[in-house]
């Protein structure tokens, strides 16, 4: 079997349900429905047992418990916002308790931000910069800075192995041409889309909505697309007008990377 991508966390910064909200989507999620979504984590896996996580949101422990997984050795981080790094202290504690070193990868400026948040992490984690590109579990990984709107910036990653290329870009909006270039010629694009059509004033926004993303797909033309970073505006019980090759990532969904 080829390597596979498992979506452990597909929600936006608040997850679904949102504590304060009683909308239909949040209520359905509370009952254990299809809209229950955790914060950002995906897992890249192979039959050989090696693999890595991308991002480590505050629902990291829930994801590990759902899978019965007791340790993760390697995590690649996109940026230092809480919904992408909130699980790092629990991961570091697991490393301490198991007497194992975790391997944390991120751009140098992101590593520095992480250590400002959690200055004790390097007691139990080895920190590696992704600047200049890295090889991780057989994947050639290249990261680049992307516009995150009012929230500043994030990083996206392009991963290549043999004749397969895919990209993980969960937090971005209004990407200029130079930031779009690594998203061409992809077999799979994972793109963040918090709302179907966001009504907020543009200057206050930080992530593409689905309607904008669909226009972007016409230009990028990936073979497959999964939308992630979904808010409670997205109801997986609805039939959205998406092209055949695109869909919303579902919690614990597995996509074969071939």
Q: Could you give the order of strands across the largest sheet?
A: 6-5-4-3-2-1-14
Count of helix runs: 7
Return the average pLDDT rounded to an integer: 97
Query: Could you spell the SSE succession in H and E letters?
Result: EHEEHEHHEHEEEEEHEHEEE
- Determine the N-to-C terminus distance: 9 Å
Which sheet architecture does the biggest sheet show? 7 strands, mixed
SS strand fraction: 25-35%
Oligomeric state: single chain
- Quick one: how many beta strands? 14
Q: Uncertain regions: pLDDT < 50 for 5+ in a row?
A: none
* Coarse morphology: globular
InterPro entries: Metallo-B-lactamas, RibonucZ/Hydroxyglut_hydro
Keywords: Hydrolase
Protein name: Hydrolase
GO molecular function, one term: hydrolase activity
Short description:
This protein has helices at 24-30, 60-67, 82-85, 88-98, 108-117, 177-180, 210-220, and strands spanning 4-9, 41-45, 51-54, 74-76, 102-106, 125-129, 134-136, 139-147, 153-161, 164-169, 188-192, 224-228, 246-248, 254-256.
Set out the fold topology.
Layout: E1 4-9, H1 24-30, E2 41-45, E3 51-54, H2 60-67, E4 74-76, H3 82-85, H4 88-98, E5 102-106, H5 108-117, E6 125-129, E7 134-136, E8 139-147, E9 153-161, E10 164-169, H6 177-180, E11 188-192, H7 210-220, E12 224-228, E13 246-248, E14 254-256
Parallel strand pairs: 3-4, 4-5, 5-6, 10-11, 11-12, 12-13
Antiparallel strand pairs: 1-2, 1-14, 2-3, 7-8, 8-9, 9-10
Description of the structure:
With 258 residues, the protein is α/β, with parallel strands linked by helices. Helix content is 21%, strand content 28%. It has helices spanning 24-30, 60-67, 82-85, 88-98, 108-117, 177-180, 210-220, and strands at 4-9, 41-45, 51-54, 74-76, 102-106, 125-129, 134-136, 139-147, 153-161, 164-169, 188-192, 224-228, 246-248, 254-256. The protein has a seven-stranded mixed β-sheet with strand order 6-5-4-3-2-1-14. Strands 7-8-9-10-11-12-13 form a seven-stranded mixed β-sheet, with helices on one face. Strand 2 and strand 3 form a beta hairpin. The mean pLDDT is 97.
């Amino acid at each position: 079997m080829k390597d596979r991508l498992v979506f452990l966390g597909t929600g936006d910064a608040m997850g679904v349900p949102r504590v304060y909200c009683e909308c239909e989507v949040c209520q359905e999620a509370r009952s254990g429905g299809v809209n229950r979504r955790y914060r950002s984590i995906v897992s890249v896996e192979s039959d050989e047992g090696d693999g890595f996580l991308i991002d480590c949101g505050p629902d990291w422990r829930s994801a590990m418990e759902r899978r019965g997984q007791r340790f993760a050795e390697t995590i690649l981080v996109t940026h230092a916002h809480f919904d992408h790094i909130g699980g790092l202290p629990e991961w570091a504690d697991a490393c301490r308790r198991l007497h194992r070193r975790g391997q944390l990868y991120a751009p140098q400026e992101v590593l520095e931000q992480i250590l400002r948040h959690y200055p004790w992490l390097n007691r139990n984690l080895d920190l590696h910069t992704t600047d200049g590109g890295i090889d991780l579990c057989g994947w050639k990984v290249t990261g680049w800075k992307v516009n995150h709107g009012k929230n500043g910036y994030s990083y996206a990653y392009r991963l290549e192995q043999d004749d397969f290329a895919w990209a993980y870009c969960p937090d971005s909006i209004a990407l200029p041409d130079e930031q779009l270039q690594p998203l061409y010629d992809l077999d799979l694009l994972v793109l963040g889309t918090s709302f179907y059509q966001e009504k907020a004033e543009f200057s206050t926004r930080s992530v593409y909505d689905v309607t904008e993303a669909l226009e972007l797909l016409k230009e990028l033309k990936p073979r497959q697309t999964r939308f992630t970073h979904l808010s409670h505006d997205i109801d997986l019980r609805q039939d959205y007008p998406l092209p055949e090759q695109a869909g919303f990532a579902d919690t614990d969904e597995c996509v074969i990377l071939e």
